[in-house]
Amino acid sequence: MREFLRQYGAQIARLTFEHVWLTASAMLFAAAIGLPLGILLTRKQGLARPVLAVANVLQTIPSLALFGLLLPVPFLGDRAARLAIVALTGYALLPILRNTYTGIRGVDPVLVDVSNALGMSNLQRLLKVELPLAASVILAGLRTATVTCVGVATIAAAVGAGGLGELIFRGVASVDNGLVLAGAIPAALLALCADGVLGLVEKRLAVRR
Amino acid sequence: MATQEVEFAQVSFTVEGGRQLLSDISLTVEAGTTTALLGRSGSGKTTLLRTVNALVRPTSGQVLVGEQDVAEADVIALRRGIGYVIQEAGLFPHMSIERNVGMALELAGKPKTEIAARAAEMLRWVGLPEDVAKRQPWQLSGGQRQRVGLARALASDPKVLLMDEPFGALDPLTRAEIRAMVRGLLEVAVKTTLIVTHDLDEALYLADRVVLLEAGRIVADLAAGDVLESTNDAMRAYVAATWRGDAA
């Protein structure tokens, strides 16, 4: 074990960092798109169904296929990390979008009514009432997206984007279970950590009624 | 002569599908008076109330608050000048009681110290202890929450107060206590009040005037003192069906 870590420790650390970087970048983009888009959908109800359907379809494409499909796309195909971040953003988008939309739509209509009756503007209602009350549902979406992203990011190695998947793919190719585990265990720990931390935040944001 | 504060002029409201919830309602409510909108569920009383703060837009006719046509008013400014109390209070569960009470002032951009002072004053008004201010809504009883709802509606000192079945969710004893408190408050802080209820006892206890609605139409409009002796058929039927004793 010690020998193994001496040999691969630095590599595991580097690839873990890459993995976190890929996931974090994708989550940042997905949140930057998904949160405002989810809010917009609550204001333009007619758009909700088609937009959520597109995000749903995106989610159903097998990850390896999506990476492969994006390879020939100009600009994306030039750099593997760029391509991986775009694909991961696509996967993270649906849970964020759906939970933002359903979280805000799920706010008690009586409270929306009271907000209006108090003379809140649309923006005030969003910031003071809807977002705080939907926060735990929205965070649950971010949590699901993060865990999905950490898992799917292992596939990014297939297009040369790095991350812990690199160890897994090398291990599979050389029938070396040690290498597979060297990639899989940190990836699983990353997912568990993200899930635990975001779960705690989600609990804190839940509003007691 | 008393001035009118709220006026409904031939107000009708039809929902999608053609069902008419309000038919040709005309009613003038004088400033500083309390009017009860009485009627069974589905009679249109809540819909009529909600036309005053533009939560419902009439299909035809006009609603005036002060001298202003609600349809042409700046809806945010209009609503900030009208207090609104509903069943079960509708307090924001993620905000402290103080913030709930002071929300109208927060929206008006008042400084925090002023909001806190006003919230404390309003809580005293509705008979709640000072320490309630820092609590959350879930820590209060139904009756206390309803008092907070009233404090919130009155905090910005609105001229018009709308109350939609405000005591509906309370047990009989709490209901009686809060009703008495509301009557006392309305005697001191003179407001033009519209109160929606299906409870005749409540209407007679709180209101100067009782307007009976049936299927979206006004079928009786009487001074509260004349209700029990009324010869109006609809009112007589309502009294016969629901009156069980002396209001006061």
Care to describe what's here?
The complex is a heterodimer of chains A (209) and B (248). By secondary structure, chain A is mainly α. Chain A has one domain (2-205): MetI-like (MetI-like fold, Orthogonal Bundle), CATH 1.10.3720. Helix content of chain A is 81%, strand content 0%. Chain A is built from 8 helices and no strands. The longest helix of chain A is centred in the N-terminal third of the chain and has 42 residues, at 2-43. Chain B has a domain at 1-76 and 196-248: Rossmann fold (3-Layer(aba) Sandwich). In chain B, helix 5 packs across helix 6 (142-154). In chain B, a hairpin with a 2-residue loop joins strand 9 and strand 10. By secondary structure, chain B is α/β, with parallel strands linked by helices. Chain B is built from 9 helices and 10 strands. Chain B is 34% helix and 26% strand. In chain B, the strands form 2 sheets. Chain B has a 6-stranded mixed sheet with strand order 6-7-8-3-9-10, sandwiched between helices. A 4-stranded antiparallel sheet of chain B has the order 2-1-4-5, covered by helices on one side. Chain B has helices at residues 45-52, 75-80, 97-101, 103-107, 112-125, 142-154, 172-188, 200-206, 233-242, and strands at 4-14, 20-30, 34-38, 60-65, 68-69, 82-86, 160-164, 192-197, 209-214, 217-223. At the A-B interface, helix 5 and helix 6 of A face helix 2, strand 6 and helix 4 of B.
